[in-house]
Amino acid sequence: MPEIRLEGLCKTFGDTVAADGLSLDIADGEYVCILGPTGAGKTTCMRMICGLTRPDSGRVYFDGEDITDKDIDLRETTMLSQTYALFPNMNVYGNVKFAPTIKEWPEESSKQIVKSMLHMVHLEKKAEWKVGELSGGQQQRIALARALASGSKVLLLDEPLRALDARLRIDLRKELRAMAKGMNLTCIHVTHDQDEALEMADRIAVIRHGRIIQSGTPMEVFQDPATPFVANFVGRSNMITGKVVNSDGVTTDIEAAGGKVFKARASDLQAGEEAVLAIKVGSTKISHLSGEGQEMFCSGRVERMLYEGATITVELAVDGLGLISAKLPNRKYEDYRPGDEVAVHWMPSKASVFRIPEGGLEKELRLDRWER
Amino acid sequence: MRFVKRLDELSGNPKARRSWTYLAVFFFVVVILIPSVFVLTKMLTDWDLVSEVLDDSDAVAIIEGAAWNSFSIAFIVTMIDIVVGLPMAWILVRRQFKARRYLDALMDVPLAFPTAVLGISVVIFWGVPSEGVTIPGLGLVVSPYLMIVLLHIIFTYPYMVRSLSAILEQIDTNYETAAMTLGASRWTAVRTITLPLFRAGLATGFILCFARSLSETGGTYIALTMMGKQSTFFTGPTYIGYLKDIGSADDAMGAMILVSVVMIVVALILLILVRRLIAKLKIPMKKIWPEFGRRISRGLLPKAKDGIAYAFLFIMVLLPSFYIFMYLTQPIPSLDYGTLFSSIGISFLIAGAAVVIDILFGIPVAMQIARHKNSKLSRILDELVNVPLIIPTTALGFSLALFWGSIGQASELAIVLVILGHVAFTYPLVVRNITGAIEEVDPAYEEVAMTLGAKPFQAFRKILLPIVKSSVFAGGILAFTRSLGETGATISISDSVNAVPIYITELVGRGDYADAAMCSIILIIICFILTMAVRHLTRGGDDGA
């Protein structure tokens, strides 16, 4: 029963740094999502776990045993590739039976395993089909059945839902997680889709620039991001920069351009420091102006209303700050219209506050590839 | 099975894997590459012989003439191939029609014919009947130069069409469609969008055709013999063959070294130049003539272009190739079946052994090139693999004989040397084919197989090899037929190995055209059955899996 520990993994390909001191602990039976933008080093991290890529330095441990130099085929970590990679020279049955055959398990029990795996993914009737005849979702399930039939206790999922239609992708999230949990596997699931990670993971590890910058439960990562980048990548945030004017252990108050003061949760920042406040668009509240005594940080003018189905997004122009967005339930759609002046407010405990990152906020929030 | 299992285990060791790759690379360099160009060092060590030739102005004039003929013919032939090959490639890739499969198959026919056979067929078709030829031809009195151009077009044309259509297949039609929805006429769209994307295919096609024409010995020699010009008109390879025939060894040695060196050096320079130039070649884009483009995109012109492409294929390529079957209308001569079948046996032995060696030592090199694209070794190998392809086979064979001769006494091992020679010029064909196929296969297949518990060698033989199997066979067939038709390399390595094209050449030399033609027909039929059988077998394998 594997417990995985990655310790200071580094890997460069030419000028590209794919892992830069990457460390992560994964508990036995845990479903971990490694979440990050394209080029953050997600796939390299996974390939180092299963042995397809050797790290330049750093170690990989399974259950305390250093397996950094162990052969791929002996690690019992099975990868589910984003293209499924169902072997085109075999039919469905041959694919699922590949690992039992390679491992020379007794014929009878191999057959049993294949049968029960096909049954589990509800595709026992397709055993004799060619892989090209399967739909995307079926291919995905067969790839899963093949991985599970190998008896591995670690399952690596490389963007396993990426190639599927949007709807199916969402349906399969639960199914995939349930199967993995049912078999008591340790799962490492790589994705750039934050919704997928939030919904599926026991724990999310946010990766950037070849390093894990935060790891925690979906709620922790969402509500208490470790950096402005995480705040914006896992659920969009409004960002406000300014100077700390009060940090009293109850709230941290920031004075932004134009003298407006915004409140966030308590922090170790000191008065006078440059800081950035991040508040999730879903926690940003707006209301019509109602005169004296109204609790508000600032006012803004409604610029655009976006109807998104269950939610709406209201974009406000705030003098000196630019755009601030608020995500509201769709029943509020009739309440506002472009041109309205509204008050902006939120619960200070919902807002995070960070020191201004080195190199500036804009660089911190960039999603594209890392350049040195 | 035990042995395979050992290999499986061994393949888990990265050192063992690397050693195998290095062994294959070593084999390529030592057994193929160095012997192929060994003659270059021979020129330095035996400079006396060469300088004697250089002092003889008559000999120099002949050598200059032969080299000029070779290169100018190769160039003209390649240019014609490009012009007529392009529309044909277009038809094969972009048009949907029922007979396309047959057209596709017909395209490869000239490759399956030994060039010696084509030599006979072409001269009879176009030319004035030689003495002893009983089949009526078109009776055109053409110069040997023109006759050789006509001959070389036949076996280079398929290479050009194949290279161009391979690239064309990869070019998404969406580019053209997008250009046309933006207001370009078809002609303008093709000229400004598709053609510039074509350069890679053009370079490959150019090199293949040029090299093939440059190398060809058997068919050229036969054509010249039938025209009675074999001792007055030379190309580089036929001159080497001629010297081997008549010269006492020492007199001819200097001249042979010189011709070989000239052919190899110029060919290599051209290879480098073509690669550089075609990559930089700019198709003029500044000026667009929309009206002109529109006019020639409509009406009769596009149809005329296709018509000309078909006409060229049938009149210039297929008819002259098949013309030899006219001999079936003649009374069948009594053949020396013993000699014929023993020579066919020898040819098959050589070709078969060469192909097996090609595949065994070619796969690791192909894997290295395809799977480690960015490594320096791969890039160097990628370039070097082409070298034996561009070197004229006669010069290559001569060089090879010198190399092994200088190491030990070679005469008893003549057949082994001939096999090595054939390995040298067929190896690139096999490696190219397999490399291309492996590049197409997503590495995820092997990687997933390994995470499922397969050793690298198991992943290779259970997953990758079955997927690229058909390309391996295609490369094998290509190499096999190429070896079967080769005359120049065999002659220049040894006089004692009587392969079938040499036997046919001999018959022509004696004026026994009818015998030569019948032998050719038998050979073609055997080749045809063989290729069909291999195709069938490989296809049967797919269904079974």
Structure commentary:
The complex is a heterodimer of chains A (372) and B (545). Chain A is α+β, with helices and mostly antiparallel strands. The longest helix of chain A is centred in the middle third of the chain and has 17 residues, at 166-182. Chain A has helices at residues 42-50, 72-75, 92-96, 98-102, 107-120, 136-149, 166-182, 194-200, 218-223, 228-233, 361-365; strands spanning 4-13, 16-26, 31-35, 57-62, 65-66, 77-80, 154-158, 186-191, 203-208, 211-216, 237-247, 251-256, 261-265, 274-280, 285-288, 298-307, 311-318, 322-329, 341-345, 352-355. A six-stranded mixed beta sheet of chain A has the order 6-7-8-3-9-10, with helices on both faces. Chain A has a five-stranded antiparallel beta sheet with strand order 13-12-11-14-20. Chain A has a five-stranded antiparallel beta sheet with strand order 15-19-16-17-18, with no helix packed on it. Chain A has eleven helices and 20 strands. Chain A has three domains: 4-223, Rossmann fold (3-Layer(aba) Sandwich), CATH 3.40.50.300; 236-278 and 351-372, Roll (SH3 type barrels); 285-345, OB fold (Dihydrolipoamide Acetyltransferase, E2P) (Beta Barrel). In chain A, a hairpin with a 3-residue loop joins strand 16 and strand 17. The relative contact order of chain A is 0.12. In chain B, helix 8 packs parallel to helix 13 (218-226). Mean pLDDT of chain B is 83; it is low at 540-545. By secondary structure, chain B is mostly helical. Chain B folds into two domains: 1-37 and 334-545, MetI-like (MetI-like fold); 47-326, MetI-like (MetI-like fold, Orthogonal Bundle), CATH 1.10.3720. Chain B is globular and about 60 Å long. The chains are: A alpha+beta (372), B mainly alpha (545). The interface between A and B is medium-sized, with 31 and 20 residues.
